[in-house]
Protein: Family 43 glycosylhydrolase
Amino acid sequence: MPGGFSLRLAACLLFVNVLALEKRATGEEVVDFYNVIAPEGADPWLWFHEGQYYAAVTTGGNITLSRSRSLSNLGAGERKVVWSSSPGTPVDKNLWAPELHRLGKAWYIYVAADHGDNANHRMYVLENQADDPFEGKFVFKSQIVDPNHDRWAIDGTVLKVGEKLFFVWSGWEGAEDLRQNLYIAPMSDPWTLSGPRVEISRPTHPWEIQGGPPAVNEGPQVLVKDRLIHLIYSASGSWTDAYCLGRLTAAIDSDLLTPASWKKHDSPVFETAHGVYGPGHCSFTKSPDGREDWIVYHSARHQGAGWKRLIRAQPFSWDAGGLPQFGSPAPPDRPIRIPGGEPARQRYEAEAASLAGSARIARQTSASRGAKVQLSGAGDSSLTLVATVKEAGAYVVSIRYLNASERRGTATQTLTVDDGAPHGVSYHFTGPDDWSNAFISVSLKAGPNRIRLSRGERTAEVDCIDVTPVEKRNTTRRSVLILK
Structure:
């Protein structure tokens, strides 16, 4: 009798272990994500075109576009340098906040640049006649300027009302860096102003002047709903945790070149909260299914990080009066629902993986299930999981991580799938409790795939790993400025 009981107990334990291994092999299907869509970047701009998000951020030395079918996995997008300036020209340094627009039958990129002296920052336009901005060639078109006020200018964007075009940007009133105002001017074509600049906003509220001088209004972005135009702009110093968003609103049939047509909201519409610091310089887009409105913005990687930033995104709504309601930055330690139309993903907890060498499990309340895995820089430290997928194809692996290295340097790991070629993984410094995401594009075969993280430099701490299929869609929905 005792022997029979032991056999039955052993069989039960074996069955339980098989179930546990099977669960670990398949992961947990989820429809949410932890809200970092790119681990580095500032001044994000997105344009949705024929089923893909085309994105640009400030790189400083060139203009790089990326494209992705997923908003939540934007950091894994294909990248291409589409323009680099020639040395010795007025536009060869400090390229800031590029924006990609489809106007008529051409693509235009608006970018601020100088020749090494910030006082010489001006706005410039590039043009590409191809149907796809990744094809053809962007060529320098012109400076876009009010010739009677050729002053410092950055963060230019285009407002289209019917067939009329307006240019909106941030600039100095004179030749000194005392204050950044918002200006608007009419356009006769995508590269030419047809009238003088008109000031529509200057920083006056306490929440607009933190970190100054200079006091700052910058990064204007356009939202249109029903008969209202909203300019969502950034205020206070971008180098501070006080960076935030404000709002100007005008009736669509008003004289937009009259300052009195624009009404400023008295308080910020989006600001530091829930451990997200300095949210600002946003843009707007739709979910892949076209049903949801999303704000995409940069924030500091951690408190006091200044210009070291990452990109986040979250949905927003509208009130009965047609005003956008952004709420607060989503708490970074709580996942939010994936954008509508994106596929579900498999989530694997790092502490459930197979560990080797000096890799070890540690507790942390901000981790997804209260635990993380510490991967040291030692060569024997590794983490291995088995991802089982139904179809062979392209996938994105997103890794939720911490890097709290004493020297604040970038940590690295090597990711391999089965015995395939290694993929380098970089983990920017985050501090001890400010999680970020790293993104790697991989090919997986149908069935089980062994994914291994190993051979790192400095310690990286991994919370969970998401595996998401890259969908192929043929939608032709376009862009982002006119919502609902």
Observations:
- The first strand starts at residue 28 and ends at 30.
- Helices lie at 2-26.
- Residues 2-26 form the longest helix (25 residues).
- The chain has two domains: 32-337, 345-469.
